[in-house]
Amino acid sequence: MDRPMRVLMVGAGGVGDAAARIAVERDYFEAWVVADYDLARAERTVAAARERRTDDGRFSAAQVDASDADAVAALAREVGATHVFNAVDPRFVMPIFTGAFDAGADYLDMAMSLSVRHPDAPYEKVGVKLGDEQLARAHEWEQAGRLALLGIGVEPGLSDVLARYAADELFDHIDELGTRDGANLVIRDDDGNEVFAPGFSMWTIIEECLNPPVVWERERAGGDVEQGFFTLPPFSEPEVFDFPEGIGPVECVHVEHEEVLLMPRWIDADRVTFKYGLGEEMISILRTLHTLGLDSTEPVTVKGVEVSPRDVVAACLPDPATIGPRMEGKTCAGLFVTGTGKDGAPRATYLYHVVDNADSMRDYGAQCVVWQTAINPVVALELLADGTWSGTGVLGPEALPPKPFLDLLAAPKPEGYGSPWGMEERTP
Q1: Residue 275, SS3?
Q2: Which of 48, 97, 233, 316 has the largest count of CB atoms under 10 Å?
Q3: How far is Cα 285 from Cα 377, in angstroms, rounded to an integer?
Q4: Can you tell me the distance from the alpha carbon of 400 to that of 164, in angstroms, rounded to the nearest whole number?
Q5: How confident is the model at residue 323, as a pLDDT?
Q6: pLDDT attached to residue 399
Q7: Rounded (10°) CA dihedral 90, 205, 268, 239
Q8: Residue 30, exposed/middle/buried by CB under 10 A (0-12, 13-18, 19+)?
Q9: For residue range 255-314, what is the model confidence (pLDDT) as tens digits?
Q10: DSSP code of 80?
Q11: 3-class DSSP assignment, residue 245
């Protein structure tokens, strides 16, 4: 970098709060501004970071409306941001993305611009895909010499880095890049009874799980990546996947997700999929919400007040940032790769990252799902700060070298982040 890194992080929810707690341990940045619509929430995140490293003057709080690109740009200029880190839900991707560009800053996010279902047919045909609005502006970012790094959370993010690693180091030919995500997490009330409380934004869960999931296949592409995308009905093709480190078998189903939209652009594979271990209870709840119209984002009038049904559902559930003390178990994000290994023999390998909630709560005061998401953009920013990662345009993590990321993530502290990833060989 030509000047010290100054990060403007927009969003002080669960992931943003965890990212600040992780970042405060690192020395690669000059300033880290936590901005949120609710200034008090941003101030709480700053206070939590400073508690971990006594009175760290690099951290400060600010107020911003993430839906207003001009406001984001103005704040980025005011604080001298070199990088705008988007830590809010995907509704606000485009204003923050645009605001970062207008301010002359680089940009990172963990979820891409929203999709729009094809108007003529709900399944098979794709409409506006995840990330299309951002990728359409790639030339603009290239011409400006700026970088927008999309989908650098855990999924998308770490799974995409693992895909690049598999292609570079493990496989000569890839039949399928299959992101597989599962957990054995349990949330309990004060009496020890299991309760329903999603570990991540319910707004985002509804968006991902009730939209038609996208799959990519080379045969359909015919040399044009865009032609290889197609959709299936929600919850399609259930399979039981055996997750490592004691999590065990979990039923996974197709879910709309960014990996499928990113991986085929930079990695050769015959098929790309994403399946998530939702569980019977979550699937039942999502179907009920859809039946009742409570998944809608269109405002309805209730006693003279306009409100989005989906916002009401999200507001009625516990804040994911607060459920850590009542959570037990582990979460696993990973990529199941099948094909032909470097030795010419059939190969099936699961590359993965597991986080135990007991560990993330003990070490960071953050529940494991948000912590696992938050660590990856913090690692990416460090690689960008020291020049190990660089680029211009609108890129996915697959476009950048994977080994430095994986090495830094796994290396013991203080050199690295002390969060190792694993690899299991399965029967081809």
Answers
A1: strand
A2: 97
A3: 31
A4: 8
A5: 79
A6: 97
A7: 180
A8: middle
A9: 999 999 999 999 999 999 999 998 777 888 888 988 888 888 888 898 888 988 888 888
A10: T
A11: coil
Round to whole Å and give the CA distance between 322 and 199: 10
CB burial of 319-352 (b: ≥16 within 10 Å; e: otherwise) equals ebbebbebbebbbbbbbbbbbebeeeeebbbbbb
**For 232-270, where are the E strands, in sequence order?**
239-243, 248-254
Compute the residue count for the chain. 428
**What's the start-to-end Cα distance of the chain, in Å?**
44
Q: What is the mean pLDDT of residues 352-358?
A: 97
Which residue, chain included where needed, has tokens 């992780």? 22
| 8 A C-beta contact, residue 255 and residue 209 | yes
Would the pLDDT of 123 be above 70? no
- Which single residue is written with the structure tokens 């996947």? 241
State the number of CA atoms in the 13 A half-sphere of 181 facing the CB.
21
Would you place residue 214 in the very low, low, confident or very high pLDDT band (cuts 50, 70, 90)? very high
| 394: enclosing H helix or E strand | strand 393-395
State the pLDDT at residue 121: 57
Q: How many C-beta atoms surround the C-beta of residue 28 within 10 A?
A: 16
- Return the beta strands (E) in 28-86 as ranges: 29-36, 59-63, 83-86
What stretches of 166-247 show up as alpha helix (H) in DSSP?
Answer: 202-210, 218-221
C-alpha span between 179 and 181 (Å, rounded): 7
> How far from the centroid of its chain's Cα atoms is residue 123's Cα?
24
Q: Which whole number is the average pLDDT over 337-341?
A: 98
Tell me the sheet residues that pair with 8.
33, 84
Which has the closest alpha carbon to 134: 108, 153, 164?
Answer: 108
Say whether pLDDT at 124 is over 80.
no
Q: Can you tell me the distance from the alpha carbon of 312 to that of 294, in angstroms, rounded to the nearest whole number?
A: 8
What are the structure tokens assigned to 77, written together?
């200029």
What's the angle, vertex CA 209, arms to CA 203 and CA 211, rounded to 5? 100
Q: Give 320's DSSP letter.
A: G
* Nearest by Cα to 214 from 153, 128, 91, 113: 128
For residues 54-81, one letter each, b for 16 or more C-beta atoms within 10 angstroms of the residue's C-beta and e for the rest, the string is eebebbebbebbbebbebbbebbeebeb
